[in-house]
Amino acid sequence: NADVAKNRAKLDGRGGLQYFKQHFHDELVRQHRLAEGLERAIANRELSLHYQPQVSTVNGRIENLEALLRWYPADGESVSPAEFIPLAERTGLIERLGEWAMEEACRQQAAWRAAGIVDLRIDLNLSGRQVLAADGLERFEACVMRHGLRPQDVGIELTENVLIEADDRILAKLRRLYHRGVRIAIDDFGTGYSSLSYLKHFPVTALKVDRTFVRDAPQQPEDRAIMEAAIFIGHRLGLEVVAEGVETGEQLALLREMRCDLVQGFYFYPPLPAAEVFPLLVAPSATPH
Ligand code: C2E
Ligand code: MG
Ligand code: MG
Ligand code: MG
């Protein structure tokens, strides 16, 4: 990566600098190609949504799905959202991608409802640009209504950094969504740069404890303490608490002990295409394998 290249450049003198320039140039070319490909991804039908179940620690039922974008370019290997989402944010394309994801999640939710699955929520990740755009939240609400869905059928995940940046106008809109029954979750809770005081006046219904804490909780007392504190504060504020990135039975046991409400992670299910989620939803109860 760039830091490594930079350090090498310092150590190696001119040869290193050459290496660094080449590396930097290659990376720019790659990003440029990706951006071009992403521009065409919607029209080329290369995007899809996967859905990752969130399971109740109380009864093992799937209560919620997180919708996650997938990009399989027709002429190449799949690209991770961890790469193309930040790219789309930089180029402004995120608003169109977000719009596509919104439309697709609502279409899918309406189809599942028509098939008799009526008490399932789907949560969408909204990027900062979507939330802060003049009409971003209106578009979300309009999309939900256009598909004949209720406000509680489709929720949103935001990061704390987005909430911190929101001005009064945006906050008023979020509050309206909240009062209509839209679920609003704070994603990656505990990794932002903000103080906890924002929880006092921001309209949220759930906290998602970041997976780095979950990952290390069994071995690291500090991570365990932070995870426990996050669950505690969430509950004291009347919020639902979700743990992300649950991969082991040990992590699950801790989360159960701490009364975390919902768990999400590879231990249960990876993000899955809609066709693979459907049978899980009609099964009487989802038990971890
Ligand atoms: P996120 O919202 O925090 O999503 C959770 C990420 O953790 C997903 O990565 C998911 O596949 C991954 N994950 C789930 N369970 C486990 C586990 O047990 N272990 C590990 N190691 N990872 C697990 P993914 O799908 O690659 O997405 C990465 C990020 O990209 C998301 O983080 C989200 O910030 C963003 N993203 C994805 N889809 C969208 C979208 O439609 N809109 C926007 N704005 N952002 C999106
Ligand atoms: Mg998320
Ligand atoms: Mg998350
Ligand atoms: Mg996370």
From TrEMBL:
Origin: domain of life:
Bacteria
Residue span(s) of domain EAL: 31-285
Protein's recorded name: Diguanylate cyclase (GGDEF)-like protein/PAS domain S-box-containing protein
Q: Give the species.
A: Halomonas organivorans
Taxonomy of the source species: Bacteria, Pseudomonadati, Pseudomonadota, Gammaproteobacteria, Oceanospirillales
Task: Give the fragment's position in the full-length protein.
Answer: 309 to 597 of 597
